[in-house]
Amino acid sequence: MLPKTASFSFGLESYLCDFTGRATLPLIGNFILQAATNHAQKRGFGFDSMSACGRAWVLSRLSIEINEYPEHNSLIRVETWVEAVANYFTRRCFRIINSEDISLGHALSIWAAIDINTRQPVDIPTACPGLADYVETDRTCPIGGISRIPPLREAAPADAYVVRYSDIDINRHMNSIKYIEHVVNLFDMEMFRNSQIRKFDITYLAEGMFGDRLELFMQAAGASEYLVDTRKGSDSLCRSRIIWQESSRQAAGGIS
Helix, strand, coil % (nearest 5) of the chain? Predict the structure, then answer.
């Protein structure tokens, strides 16, 4: 049996970073999901084994807390482990670490398993009988839970887009990180020059498909907190909470 916790390394080349010379939140989200994919695949409950029996993992909720965004040309590691397994959901945790073994942040994710054809949830212990053996009981995630994000009643549309080819993943629905990209793009350059996203929560409620026209509704929930509701018509596909904090970092390159 492989270790319950695994660690995966990622390099931050300059072309992957934003104008401040640091990793973006969507990039860190991609590293997190890649670590989850690799961990599950090596332990026999990843994409290949799930696909073989007509099932797939779908991300239900994700919370990312970042203390410091890594800089370009640095190397980071993402540790991941399964914290709990229930009938219809499993909790997976992450720790983001720099080359000096200093924690840069943590993440908590909640996953469901669905039938590929019916798109309905399936019983996880039945779909993945060996998954419970990998539940890590000797460590916890500092993110204790993901609080509910309320629907927005008064907000006006802040942006709109149509789901295209590059938004669709191997499960033939809109990729989880693409939702995050569109949310962070609601904020202007000046916001990122002076601040950084300290905490990002997202709850996925329905699938976005090719050709769907989506609207993003945003409203402030405090001095540094914003809520975003991504909708197809009157139906919410996902809801996000973004909490900012001041940053002392300087923009890199030709933008200052």
Answer: 20, 40, 40
Predicted confidence (pLDDT) at residue 98 exceeds the cutoff of 90: yes
Q: Domains of the chain, with CATH numbers?
A: 1-141 (3.10.129.10), 147-256 (3.10.129.10)
pLDDT digits (tens, 9 = 90+) for 55-82: 999 999 999 999 999 999 999 999 999 9
Q: Angle at Cα 33 formed by Cα 76 and Cα 29, nearest 5°?
A: 65
Nearest to 214 by CA among 159, 161, 158, 167: 161
Question: Does the pLDDT at position 251 exceed 50?
Answer: no
Model-level pTM? 0.93
How many angstroms separate the Cα of 86 from the Cα of each of 111, 122, 132, 164, 197? 10, 11, 9, 34, 31
- Residue 24 · residue 71 · CB < 8 Å: no
Q: Is residue 170 classed exposed, middle or buried when 0-12, 13-18 and 19+ CB atoms within 10 A define those classes?
A: exposed
Residue 99 DSSP label: T
Any bridge partners for residue 96, and if so which? 78, 105
Tokens of 131: 């998954």
Residue 146 pLDDT > 60, yes or no?
Answer: yes
**pLDDT tens string 114-133:** 999 999 999 999 888 889 99
CA distance 94 to 141: 7
CA distance 58 to 135: 19
